[in-house]
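WARN retry 2 of 3 for item q-0093 after timeout on previous attempt; input resubmitted unchanged.
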Amino acid sequence: TFHFADGLKQYLSAAINGATLVHPEIFAGSAGKIGAHGGVQWAVAWTADADGFLSSYCNTIPTPDGGTHEAGLRSALVKGVKDHAERVGQAKRASVIGADDVMTGAACMVSVFIREPEFQGQTKDRLATAEATRIVENAIRDPFDHWLAGNPMQANKLLEFVVERADERIRRRQEKEISRKTAV
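OK item q-0093 returned
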């Protein structure tokens, strides 16, 4: 076994050791009573030079296929980035941002504690408890908004990084459309 005294933040820091971060600070926190129904812990950092990953847990059980708690994390991060863009007058540029753009390069860990979780399949690889989406999104949304507002330089770097990912995705899609039309 292994132990990280500072929880998921320290665990994520060890997992991304050596990666170039979009911003130097890891967004981490917890809400609710850990180990009790509705408790959530998270840690998120955006890496500039590596693919991201998402490690999720339900009641300390790894959920490698994700599930509803990951959907809550994605939703909170996307809404937070879009709200920040609106606050700084970049709403038009941010209108093209999707969950994939925000999650590209994001190294994330989320752990939720809920009573009587429902899983898909017998291997417990995917959390299916619908309530977990709401619990995680509500737990992360306000702290993420405060973190972005309290770190405007880092928030703007993150916004620029995410918008660049969205622009790249759109450009690739347009190139694919053009090559498909040209072939026809």
